[in-house]
Amino acid sequence: MGDKKKKIHKLEISGKNVETFKKLRPNLIKRIFEMFEPIDEEDYARNQASLSFEFLEEKIKRGSIENYKIVAEIEEKFSKAEKNKAEARKIDAEAKKINFDNKLNEMKLFLGLNKAMLLGNKNKEAIVFVKEIDSLIEVIENVQEEQRLAK
User: Fold this and answer.
1) What is the 8-class DSSP label of residue 123?
2) Side-chain-side CA neighbours of residue 35 (13 Å)
3) Gap between the Cα atoms of 137 and 98, Å rounded
4) CB 3.0-4.6 Å disulfide test: which of 15, 31, 52, 126 passes with 121?
5) 50-80, pLDDT tens digit by residue?
6) How far apart are alpha carbons 122 and 116 in whole angstroms?
7) What predicted TM-score, i.e. pTM, was given to this entire model?
């Protein structure tokens, strides 16, 4: 094991005039000891707590502002997402309406073609069926008229 040496610091103070220095020396030593005197622990703790509290208050204020900014950004993104969803629902509804209108027109055309094929037939069943076709075409035209009026 190595030898552990204690380091001793030596402070040598002297003045130009030995007599004056001898008079001032006790006062100088007293002031040096005052510098190294322990700080009143209660005052020190109170001061540290005060500094910590001030730091935390500033941190909370800064955090609150940052939090409000983040919340505002999130709300803006949700608002945009809701707007996009509403636009998508509107486009979907318009597409469904167009599809429904096309289906009505196809049914009307299909029923009209069947009616045309049955018109020359004198069979009672064919005549009743033509009347039913006329009723279905009338219902389709009423639905289409209602849609035009709703616009």
Assistant:
1) -
2) 6
3) 19
4) 126
5) 777 777 777 777 767 777 888 888 889 888 9
6) 13
7) 0.48
